[in-house]
């Protein structure tokens, strides 16, 4: 009788373990998907910001180019066009960021860094562990309880 009860409990225990593993996997997959969607939304917002900034900067660049060119021609001083060089670089960067391949080049470089230079990605004091977080929490909680007295 005890053997049958034990066998039934073992079967139930295994089913419960499988159920818990399945739920943990589902939760992990959902969390990964949620984090990826949040990352995609943040990147879309950054690209949208770049495109919006480009509209304003492009307008400024156009007005500055026309104004400086006209001023240089009227005063016969080509040096007045010197500010167009750095402004042109900024405009080209913003154009590349908003509509060009900058994001792809950045991703490729990030993959290269992760592959060939992983030591550059190390955090100071290493990756936080449960023990390090718990130690810091305890230190803070004893400090606050000491301050309360």
From TrEMBL:
GO terms for biological process: positive regulation of plasminogen activation. GO terms for cellular component: plasma membrane. The keyword Protein biosynthesis does not apply. Signal peptide: none annotated. It holds the Pfam family DUF2368. The chain crosses the membrane at residues 82-104. It comes from the Eukaryota. The keyword RNA-binding does not apply. Keywords: Membrane, Transmembrane, Transmembrane helix. InterPro entries: Plg-R(KT). PANTHER family: PLASMINOGEN RECEPTOR (KT). This is Plasminogen receptor, C-terminal lysine transmembrane protein. It comes from Sphaeramia orbicularis.
């Amino acid at each position: 009788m005890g053997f049958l009860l034990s066998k039934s409990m073992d079967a139930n225990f295994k089913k419960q373990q499988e159920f818990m593993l399945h739920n943990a996997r589902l939760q992990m997959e959902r969390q990964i998907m949620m984090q990826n969607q949040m990352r995609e939304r943040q990147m879309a917002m950054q690209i949208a910001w770049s495109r919006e900034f480009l509209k304003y900067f492009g307008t400024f660049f156009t007005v500055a180019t026309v104004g400086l060119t006209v001023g240089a021609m009227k005063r016969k001083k080509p040096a007045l066009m010197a500010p167009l060089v750095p402004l042109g670089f900024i405009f080209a960067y913003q154009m590349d960021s908003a509509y060009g391949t900058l994001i792809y080049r950045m991703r490729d470089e990030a993959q290269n860094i992760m592959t060939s230079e992983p030591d550059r990605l190390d955090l100071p004091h290493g990756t936080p562990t449960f023990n390090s977080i718990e130690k810091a929490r305890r230190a803070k909680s004893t400090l606050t309880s000491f301050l309360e007295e």
